[in-house]
Amino acid sequence: MKRHIDNPLIGPADVVPSAPGFRVRGAFNPGATRFQDEILLLLRVAEDCPAEEGTVSVPTLKIADGIGRAEALTVALDDPDVRLKDTRGVIYKGVDYLSTMSHLRLARSRDGIHFTVNETPFIFPSEPCERFGVEDARITRIGDTWYINYTCVSPDGWATRLASTRDFKSLVRHGTIFTVQNKDVAITPEKVNGLYWALHRPNNSGFGRPSIWYAESPDLIHWGNHRCLLRPRDTIWEEMKIGGGFPSIRTEQGWLQVYHGKGRDQVYSLSALLLDLNDPTRIVKQAKSPFLIPEEPYETDGFFGNVVFSNGAVTWPDGRVFIYYGACDETVCLVETTIAELLGSLDS
To answer: How far apart are CA 149 and CA 185, in angstroms?
Structure first.
């Protein structure tokens, strides 16, 4: 496994802001797929609104007729209706506003390394449940349709929604498929025992820690037979929580899943596990330690340091795997590996 020499491949400077008065702070955590003769990334683009001295400015969303429009809300810091929460946002007249808002933007490449980022969003917040943004897409191809699940964020929390496309121009929205608080959904493209299946991550509150769960569906919309598949281990890499990554890859040995762990000092790392081909609720192998941890400066120092997070990968006919990952919630990077190397990182 090796990090690409050109890392980071994409950064905030490569992305045009979506609206006047907005500034791109991060382009990261991309979903990935092949489409025709290109590799497409669906970037999470996080934007804020720079403010003049004595004021605070935050991104807001105006929704009309199912279309979301971004605007900057600027108010004086000495306004009695303003209350600063922390760096994450403000409360103005009793309403919460976050300091950043995310949308999803396409980036295109012939070789999977050199990308051109579209100038306009592909999926932009457009419903009340997306008021604080849309984030962290996973892309699953089934036949001639590419299904995109993503996290929506609002004052009600976060949930997972589903959309689909056949041309990466038009988009069909299918609504919420996992309700609050649930994210890190990875839908596998092949059915097992006549049903689609996915990994997801409910947010434990009270008992336990956030873990990877399993679910089944006949139609990608209605999900059931939920069960906890894997819990965080008491290691420095996973002691806080774990969550699924990109859609599981079919291998001769089983379904290969790359997942992330959040550990001591809020460090994020990437690890792997193997699920049974005929019964994905059975774990065959799991790596004892991560195969990717924050080490390079672009992984340790940035908008949110010490983070590597992946929700997109592309496989090549010769067994190579390009794992695209977000670094520091700021840039897109690439680690090149193979199916054999990933399987070799596993321990029974």
So the answer is: 7
